[in-house]
Amino acid sequence: MPFDPETLIWKSSLKNLITDSKVLCQRLNLPENLISHNPFPLRVTESFLARMEKGNPKDPLLLQVLISQQENLNDQGRTDPLEEKNYLKQPGLIQKYQGRALVTVTEACAVHCRYCFRRHFPYAQNRLGKMGWERIVNYLQNDTSISEIILSGGDPLMLNDESLQQIIQELGKIPHLKRLRIHTRIPSVLPERITSTLIAILSRSRLAVIIVVHINHANEIDTQVKQVCQKLKSHVTLLNQSVLLKNINDSAESLVQLSEKLFDAGILPYYLHVFDPVRAAMHFDVPIEEAKILHKKIACVLPGYLVPKLVKEIPREPYKTVLS
């Protein structure tokens, strides 16, 4: 693949991630009593940090990534809240629902979201490698009921262009596959990763490409994020899924602003997930009845196409459960 100067920029950004809570608090002029430690490490991009309000310990972007003391005091919740281990068909291949399958192509993320339902996922046992990927391709080739493949992780856009292009090309050779879905946080946390080379790779695929971004708050969308999403929209379908998080976006005003700003950036609101009960993160949980009330409030304000479906993923159910 030819030299791409844009690649140097986003890879340089990854080398300069903030991984120390003390540094993060110093950069934001926050007191040291907010500093805490946890086996699930801190990981924040400069781009995401730039959108946080200095001196505000309740900033909605900060609360998504800052290690909270509550994580070490709370052992409620489950390490595998969606029981994904029961749906592993091959290492790295999860199939819960009819007609689609999900591949965890990497464990890497540009930021570590404290509410992540896969924060305890056994990535070491699900790394693909060449042989693992070949087994997955063989599985997909033999199951003609699968029409859609989902790339997840970690964050699939953390892969370099060569690896991502090879994966997409090989999937495109499987005749019964119709759609490629990519779940990613990258456009909002590392927008410089959305390069012209990446867009070209996505646009050349035989498969219909859907990118599901993960944005929880309107403040995550600045001019740069809006620009890269509008570039993507010319070549792929752009959807958003959010998680309803206590003290971050659990107000009708926040959710309305999010939907409006998403649409301005060319992204259609898709799902609003109630919290998956993952261990060490239960302080983010919003009770289902409160979630339903919030959803009704935003439905009274927004046009229908800007109202995301309020859903819960329940283990062993054949589809996501719509709550509203």
In DSSP terms (H or I, runs of 4 or more residues), the helix count works out at 12
As laid out across the biggest beta sheet, the strand order is 1-2-3-4-5-6-7-8-9-10
Please give the CATH class of the largest domain. Alpha Beta
The averaged pLDDT comes out at 96
**What's the order of the H and E elements?**
HHHHHEEEHEHEHHEHEHEHEE
* Class of secondary structure makeup: alpha/beta
Into which percent range does the helicity of residues fall? 25-40%
Number of domains: 2
CATH architecture of the largest domain: Alpha-Beta Barrel
- Beta-strand content: 5-15%
Number of strands: 10
Described by its quaternary structure, the protein is single chain
List low-confidence stretches: none
- Could you describe the largest sheet, including whether it forms a barrel? 10 strands, mixed
Distance, first to last CA: 48 Å
* CATH H-level homologous superfamily name of the largest domain: Aldolase class I
Radius of gyration equals: 19 Å
- What is the CATH topology classification name of the largest domain? TIM Barrel
